[in-house]
Amino acid sequence: MKIYGDKRSGNCYKLELLTSILELQYEWIDVDILKGETRSAWFLEKSPNGKIPILELDDGRVLSESNAIMHYLAANSSLIPTSQFSFASLLQWQFFEQYSHEPYIAVARYINIYLGMPEARRAEFESKQAGGYRALAVMEAQLKNTPFLLGDTLSLADISLFAYTHVAHEGGFDLSAYPAVRNWISLIQSQKGFVNMLA
After folding, report:
1. Where are the alpha helices (DSSP H) in 23-65?
2. What is the pTM of this model?
3. Which of 1, 24, 83, 161 has the highest count of CB atoms within 10 angstroms of its CB?
């Protein structure tokens, strides 16, 4: 199978980390979003939404959306809980990541790291800070009670949220006031199969 992505993207890194933990084999294909490669005809033929990452299976079928791809790759593994409530809680955290976390922390990081903080985007960057800190506070509240987001063991919820949280400082976010989040980052980094972003 093939994964198309950008090594700097947190959404793509989710898949790098997951495949490393699960010891899955795949071919990585770099896609440069700043050069418009996700809007090129060859890419849009694979994924009409024009976003990375995408997973292309051996038979040519394609999946998009990082969290959906993660569920496909991790099927029948310990990273997906089997109880109905725990599974719903996993989805809850992944929806939170996409709607309450990524739009602030990831976008602020994109403006700073990808675009180099252009003056025209500075106000937008600053507007993302409050929402990002709200998301971190929600995570901190949970992680004060349990080492991982769903309890005592690593799940897809942790991998989804780790991707942009551990580089939140690149979006201007200071994690010093979030000790439980910092401890959680260290726990994930100590997992067997852990691989750094841009490894």
Report:
1. 41-46
2. 0.95
3. 161
